[in-house]
Structures are given as structure tokens and as C-alpha cells.
Write a structure and sequence with these properties.
By secondary structure, this protein is an alpha/beta fold. The protein has a single domain, classed as Ribonuclease H-like superfamily/Ribonuclease H (Nucleotidyltransferase, domain 5). The chain contains nine helices and six strands, in the order E-H-E-E-H-E-H-E-H-H-H-H-H-H-E. The longest helix is centred in the middle third of the chain and has 24 residues. Keywords: Endonuclease, Hydrolase, Nuclease, Nucleotidyltransferase, RNA-directed DNA polymerase, Transferase.
Length: 197
């Protein structure tokens, strides 16, 4: 889970200042929520909303050490549902690389979408995020997994998990190290319950 700040023009137009991005680490499936401020309460409300919509709760939530993530209310919430919280160093590209990449992608396409509108009075940040995420999750193949995030996150066919694992192992990237030692059962479980936040 991570946050990124919107451009001044979008902030002025929408009264939102940040976007909270939540990424399933294995499948790369992504959710994003615009928020007015980066308070612990707003972050927790959005996390709770997302978790209530998922078929299974995550085992682990990973965030940086920002006060919006490293706080008693998120810890208490996660303890209640037996979710482990891991805090990595802020701006640590190795630990938060997936989240940082998604944030750059969302930021770039939100800005492009905003600037390309003929009449910005009709521009809605929620609709724009929905369109961007719909394309990202359902239309494009991820370079690491070789599959669309939607295909992996909602997969029921075990052979897909094997193929994803093989694709990941064949990639010579930092992301490979995160997956290579998992068994098929761990990958299946991990793919539906762990995300980088």
C-alpha cells in the first residue's frame, strides 16, 4: 500500500490531494482510491472498504513507515483480522518498488487523461481511475508474470499459477527473488491474499 500526491491542477479541480494505491504483490492486480488528506482514518476506511469486498483477507500488508500507515488504528484493525503488517523504509525502491512503479503509472495516466479532456468540467477522478485501472488490470499483460493481473488474481486453474511461477523464474529481475522459493500451494494462497500496500 502506498500514496502518491496529485498534481496541483488536479488537486485544485477535485479537492483530492492524494491517491492511495493497493497492489496484490503476486498478480499485480491494483486498486486505487483518491483521498483528500493522508490521515490514518481515511487510509483505514479505504483499506477496510477494499478488504470487505475481497473473497479472502490477506495474510500480510506491507507499507512504508508513513504515519498514515504506521499507526495504532491500522495495527489494531489488522490484529483483529490476524493480518501481519510489515513496514519498510520510506522511499526504499527495493522494498516498495512495485508500489512506486504503479504510482508512477497512475500519476502519468491521470495527468494525461486530465489534460486531454476537451472540457475539464466533465472530468471525474473516480471515472478516470476506473478506466486506467480497468486497462491495467484487464487489458495489458504484466512484464513479470506474463499475464493480465485480472487473469492471475481471479484464477481458479492451478496450471496458471505454475505458468506464472515459471514466467517469474525466467525473468532476471529483482521481482523474481520475491517468488522463486514458493511452492505451488504457497503461490496459490499468496496470489489471492497478499498485497503490497
Amino acid at each position: 500500500m502506498d500514496l502518491f500526491e496529485l498534481t496541483d491542477e488536479i488537486k485544485d479541480y477535485t479537492n483530492y490531494r492524494y491517491v492511495l494505491s493497493i497492489i496484490d504483490h503476486f498478480s499485480k492486480y491494483t486498486w486505487a482510491y483518491p483521498i483528500a488528506s493522508k490521515t490514518a482514518e481515511l487510509v483505514l476506511n479505504n483499506v477496510e472498504h477494499l478488504l470487505n469486498s475481497l473473497p479472502k483477507l490477506p495474510d500480510i500488508i506491507q507499507t512504508d513507515n508513513g504515519s498514515e500507515f504506521a499507526n495504532k488504528s491500522l495495527e489494531t484493525f489488522c490484529e483483529r483480522f490476524q493480518i501481519r503488517v510489515i513496514h519498510s523504509s520510506s522511499y526504499n525502491p527495493r522494498a516498495q518498488g512495485t508500489a512506486e512503479n504503479i504510482n508512477k503509472y497512475l500519476h502519468r495516466y491521470l495527468w494525461r487523461n486530465f489534460k486531454q479532456q476537451n472540457s475539464q468540467q466533465d472530468w471525474k477522478i473516480h471515472s478516470s481511475l476506473f478506466s486506467i485501472l480497468n486497462f491495467y488490470n484487464k487489458e495489458r499483460r504484466h512484464t513479470i508474470t506474463g499475464f493480465k493481473p485480472h487473469e492471475v488474481f481471479f484464477a481458479t486453474d492451478q496450471s496458471l499459477f505454475v505458468r506464472v511461477k515459471e514466467n517469474v523464474e525466467n525473468k532476471k529481475s529483482k521481482s523474481t527473488k520475491l517468488h522463486k522459493n514458493f511452492s505451488l500451494e504457497e503461490i496459490k494462497l499468496y496470489s489471492t491474499i497478499e498485497f503490497k500496500i
